[in-house]
Design goal:
The protein is of the alpha/beta class and about 210 residues long. The chain is about 25% helix and about 30% strand. It folds into two domains: about 110 residues, ATPase, nucleotide binding domain (Nucleotidyltransferase, domain 5); about 55 residues, no CATH class. Helix 1 crosses helix 2.
Amino acid sequence: MLVLAVDTATPAVTAGVVTVDGARLDVLAERITVDAKAHGELLTPHILAALDAAGHTPADLDAIVCGAGPGPFTGLRAGMATAAALGHALDVPVHPVCTLDAIAAADTAAGPLLVTTDARRKELYWATYDEHGTRTAGPAVSKPADIPQLNTRAGTTIYADVLTMPHTGRQYPTPAGLVRAADLDRPPRPLTPLYLRRPDATEPGARKRVTAP
């Protein structure tokens, strides 16, 4: 099975082409650029470059895996909209996965794990996982001091001074982690983004009079 993996839920713009044969997974090519303001500009070129480097075209794809967040509104929409459009055009299934699950899936060390990513506003998106990689809490968004610090390792180095535990240093999902986190043998779940909080933008209220009645 030939799978395209994409994620724009973190500052990294991620695209990769992965082959799946039973339990075996091979990354043929990947393109990852850390630029929080260039998701829309870089994702499609990254997808095409990864496919070209892997020696394939979009028509060869059997499935797409897309990180569904949690993440900021603008960046997350870029990846999910692109994945949905490609899936529709190519008539292949699009499997959304929690981006935190994808980061956890790429961690091979034994023991429970806490995965965090930057949620801005001095907050973190987080989730915890047991020694088998199964999510046990989250995803959620909290201040760093409010995140449960159980007997776990941390999956990122963000706010390491507050999360007082050993860190793996892994901050962004990889194509391999995205595909490992997906259940490709089942029908895909709905493409629902994990925003976890309301947008900053609000509907304008009634206009105020600037002249006396």
